[in-house]
Amino acid sequence: MANGPNSFLVRIGDAEDSTEIQVKKRAKLPSEFVKPAGASTKSLKPGVERWTIKTGTDAGVSKVGKDGVVDTTVDEMVKIPRPKDFVPVTSGVKKYETQRAAPVETTVWRLEAHVIALKLEADGDFHLVLQADSGEQMIGEIPDPDPKFVKPNSPFFADIQEARNAADANLIQPHAPKATEPVNRMLVPQGSVMAHRLKGAGHAKPHAAAHKPGRAPFKTKIPPTKVRVTGVGFFDKVHGQMGVSSFNGIELHPVLRIEFL
Description:
Distance between the termini: 42 Å
Strand content: 15-25%
Number of strands: 8
Oligomer: single chain
Helix content: 10-25%
Strand order of the largest sheet: 2-3-4-8-7
């Protein structure tokens, strides 16, 4: 039913494009959303924060997996408390930059969930949003097995390669946008609502060439895809990541196996 003439929404109407931009600036939306972003996107390069732990090249990696593979659920994982000296959840702790938080980060966990969104991050990781039937969410990350990102001496190297290939074949290739345009330093599907609105605000025009999956950052939702994921526990810093468990920042990072159910 249409709003009547006395409706508040009818009275205020839609904002003009210039007003919309000014409001978003006052709301402190990151500047790339409210001014032309240019046609360039971030190139992929290895990360820095806790990178040795994320890729299994830390001094404590030999402690990982001593208890075998432990079955769990997303609902359980998002309730695991961080160590008392590894808080607040929104900050890094120097002690843990090169040290694992046992037993969570020395355990290989296995769970079933649905992948509902995915992302190719600027550090080369495949970022998977894992959702339980309850609606709880957490993140799974599969690093790029290229030696530039993961050293071949990592005990996880071969498993990361296999997991990456499986995710690429079943998730990335089918769902990565084939034609994209740059928004917020990453590529979004051409013609999407986000792209349309930002182009209207004067942002860059679409790329003429199709996006090649694995070559530039992108993110997208996908139809829920049932998976069984095995990976190493990891406490990340909570900084607004897509699908993050805000209570503890728990992830499977790296994912060592992904099975499609």
